[in-house]
Amino acid sequence: MKRILFGIVIITALAVYFFQTQPHSVAVEQAAQVKPATSEASVVNKKQPNEDSPLQVVNKLKKQISLCRDQSQQQSNKVQTLNQSLVSFFVSELKKGTSVSTLLKYTDLSKINQRTYIALLKDAIIAEQKQQLNITSSLNELANWQGIEAIKGFTNDKVKEMIQQLGDNKHNPPGLTLSVPLDENVQKETLYALLSNTDTFTTYSKTFIKLEGSEVISPATLFVLNANKFTPKEFEQAISSNQFTVNEVATAIKNDIPNEYIIALLQQVPVLDAMPLYEKNTVLYNLADIAVSKFNLPLVKVLQTKGVTPTNEPGLFTGLDVAIVNLPKSGNLTLAPLDTKHTQLLDYLKKRGYKAHSGNANEDLNSKGVFFVNDFIYQQGAYINKQDNPAQYAYFSPISKINNNALPQITEPDNSDVALFLVDLKQQKAQLNNKRQNCELLQQQLKDTEQLHTVMQAYDKVQQVKNKHGSNFVRVLHDIDPVLVNYWWSSLSNQLSNDRSQSTFNEYLSKKEYQKAYEYSLSTVLTQAETDTLFSLLLLNPDDLITTWQNRINPKPPRELTRLSRFSLNHWQALAQAGFDFSITDIHGRDVYTQAASSSVEAVQFLIDNKIPADPSKLGVDILDLALEQSYTKGELSPMIPLALQLVEKFEPNHLARVARLKMFYPAIYQQLIQLNPALKPAQGTELNHYIFDNH
């Protein structure tokens, strides 16, 4: 008997153990199958286990996508940091004596966009040059300068007062740039005082205060910009005890200071072949390049006698490139008539063997024209068409041309420091790019899970149907999904350029001469552009313009009613009180219910209360489509549904497709919906809608 009892106890214990542990083991198995969301959104989860509902799958993907978005800014900052590290590396290489041309040869190896690579290299060139100068970002320097009154409205006391008012933001107040002019009535005593700033004469102030005519402010700059206040002899005598830099000479050249002053200034510059501190995106190597940009041939010749000649580096840029990009243009790349000063300088450079970089260095565009462009300078070049401008073509076509790819590219890593740095940089950027691509894969996986197509796919579908079905294609679009009709109308709206030409009627409206606008509309049929302008202003000023709107002769409907969706119920009510007729339709026959649905439930109820008709037979989405989509996107039954069911009595395939979507992803919402109207229950196997309205 004891053995029997012992056996029963053992069996009972095993049974209890089995039934108590089975749910736990299943839960452990499920937990193992569902991978947790990682802190790094770079890992794309594989398809979720079968026990996950479609909504759970979607929510997990959305969570990962949200994580990706949070990290995108961090990745952008990392890219900026990497780019800045490249600039710093370039600076160190330039200091070591590595040429710009050598650094450019590694463009392909870096896998960085050529334009970006060149821009970063230019930043480095300027940064390296700045390190050789005295530059301050402190306003305190200005406050102590003698002769600061050369700037209009400035005194030492006023600068000190400004510093006190700005407080902690005194060096770089956010969003503030102050452009200041010279004092045209400055006294010579003030200018002589500028020469007395012995320790800070060529200290350049780079702050939010910008001096008209110069990239920087310094006592030396202020003095040179006022050279015309002296005779050439006075100027030469005044500066005889001061040393200047190439920056003051560059400022003088750019501001068209007469050459006799500039030549005197050259005598006071110890290093003439240095690169001036120039504009951020323009790197001209020397004073001769700047003289070329101003077509100052006499000065180019003077500089040549001092050993400074225009740059001539094939694959980088040449003096002839500088001249061509600075030629006067009458339009995009189209040259204006040239003056003698232009042709004289061009001829001078050509005779000295200068060539120009060209977009068609190896072929003459089938002998139809010549195209000059320089990738390093990256300013507007010139295109000379043989047929349109035979004289200029005859002048420019003989110019010897250089291909922008003249510098041989290093595509495989060598043992240089440049190659090692760029390969490492490339690998770091590749890792960031992989994360970005994984985020894009998550987006695509979400679309696939939701069985939704992208906006681009919707537009592609519209074009495919249009090409295939001819004049009946809009009806075909509606049968596929009414949303596609709205996409078609949206594409039409994008193609129609707004007529911005001034008209008498629009001028009346802009000047708020509403009585004149009213009288004009009584006698003249408004254009579509005028109609659209009037409609837009009517919505903002109904009391002033409702009479004009209502009394137009041969009135046109507005192009679209989209603006109504931005207004609150109070605004809709104000429009009604002013006499606005909400039975209006646009040029495609769309009524106001679509915009009301995008505004608020109250706006829809307002239209129903005022017995505004809805046309359920029209093409495009209707209010029930929108209410069903709102239920899906918000994850709750839209309060618009009962109102939509009052307006739409016949349910179409597009409605049932959206109901089927709710059934798959939100079964509880689906049950609420069919309780309101059982006729909305879709047949087994009903295909989900693949397009979303998105206010198209």
Verbal overview:
The protein is mainly α. Among the domains are: 33 residues; 121 residues, no CATH class; 184 residues, Alpha Horseshoe (Serine Threonine Protein Phosphatase 5, Tetratricopeptide repeat); 56 residues, no CATH class. The chain is 54% helix and 5% strand. Helix 15 packs antiparallel against helix 16, helix 19 packs across helix 20 and helix 27 packs antiparallel against helix 28. The protein is elongated and about 100 Å long. The N terminus is likely disordered.
Helix and strand arrangement:
Elements: H1 2-33, H2 54-96, H3 100-104, H4 107-110, H5 114-130, E1 134-136, H6 139-144, H7 156-166, E2 178-180, H8 188-194, E3 203-205, E4 209-211, H9 219-225, H10 232-238, H11 246-254, H12 259-266, H13 287-293, H14 297-305, E5 312-313, E6 317-318, H15 319-325, E7 329-331, E8 334-335, H16 340-351, E9 356-358, E10 369-372, E11 382-385, H17 390-396, E12 401-403, H18 417-450, H19 455-469, H20 473-480, H21 482-495, H22 504-510, H23 514-523, H24 528-540, H25 542-550, H26 569-578, H27 593-599, H28 601-609, H29 623-634, H30 640-647, H31 653-665, H32 667-676
Parallel strand pairs: 1-3, 2-4, 9-12
Antiparallel strand pairs: 5-6, 7-8, 10-11
CATH architectural name of the domain at 451-496 and 559-696: Alpha Horseshoe
What name is given to the CATH topology of the domain at 451-496 and 559-696? Answer: Serine Threonine Protein Phosphatase 5, Tetratricopeptide repeat
Helix fraction by DSSP (H/I, runs of at least 4): 40-55%
Cα gyration radius (Å): 37 Å
β content, as a range?
5-15%
Q: What oligomeric arrangement do these chains adopt?
A: single chain
Instruction: Provide the low-confidence segments as ranges.
Output: 1-48
Q: Output the structural class.
A: mainly alpha
Described by strand count, sense and barrel closure, the largest sheet is: 2 strands, parallel
Principal-axis shape equals elongated
Number of helices: 32
Overall average pLDDT: 86
Strand order of the largest sheet: 1-3
CATH superfamily of the domain at 451-496 and 559-696: Ankyrin repeat-containing domain
Number of strands: 12
Cα(first) to Cα(last) distance is 84 Å
CATH class (first level) name of the domain at 451-496 and 559-696? Mainly Alpha
